[in-house]
Amino acid sequence: MESLPPGWRREKLLRRWSAFSAGLHEFYVGPYRQMFKREKQDEDDLFMIAVLGEALGVPDPAAYYTAELMPAVWENFHTWHRRIGIPRSPLDHIGCC
Questions:
Q1: How far apart are CA 52 and CA 60, in angstroms?
Q2: What is the pLDDT of residue 1?
Q3: Where are the alpha helices (DSSP H) in the chain?
Q4: Over the chain (97 residues), what is each successive 10-residue block's mean pLDDT?
Q5: Largest Cα–Cα distance of the chain, in whole Å?
Q6: Residue 90 in contact with residue 55, Cβ under 8 Å?
Q7: Which of 32, 28, 66 minimizes the C-alpha distance to 47?
Q8: Which residues contact 97 (CB under 8 A, 6 or more apart)?
Q9: What count of Cα atoms within 13 Å lies in the side-chain half-sphere of residue 62?
Q10: Rounded to two decimals, what is the model's pTM?
Q11: What was the pLDDT predicted at 26?
Q12: What pLDDT sits at residue 4?
């Protein structure tokens, strides 16, 4: 019988488990990938509107709390307003384009 190096069996089991896990993930997520992507985009848009609501002229009772999140959304602001169909920045004081 051939002797195997220590750790070889564990490594082989981990590799198989990883492949099996990836296969299960693909099996369950694969058919719904587009739906997940669309839902994430809708959530991101809603988050962006919630954070920028006051700046866009929508009365926001939680503006005090969402103002702290503004730096987190600036990075994606230009992509967001272009994606929703606004060619120029909707904010007067932000000129991203």
A1: 9
A2: 57
A3: 8-29, 33-52, 63-66, 70-83
A4: 72 95 94 93 89 81 82 84 83 73
A5: 77
A6: no
A7: 66
A8: 78, 87, 88, 89
A9: 11
A10: 0.61
A11: 93
A12: 65
* Residue carrying structure tokens 């606004």: 86
d(CA 52, CA 77): 10
Cα 87 to Cα 94: distance, rounded to the nearest angstrom: 13
- List the structure tokens of 44: 């991101």
Specify the length of the chain in residues.
97
Judge whether 36 and 49 are in contact, CB under 8 Å.
Answer: no
The pLDDT of residue 96: 75
Residue whose entry in the numeric block shows the structure tokens 């988050």: 47
- 26/57 Cα distance (integer angstroms): 43
Would you state the pLDDT for residue 37?
93
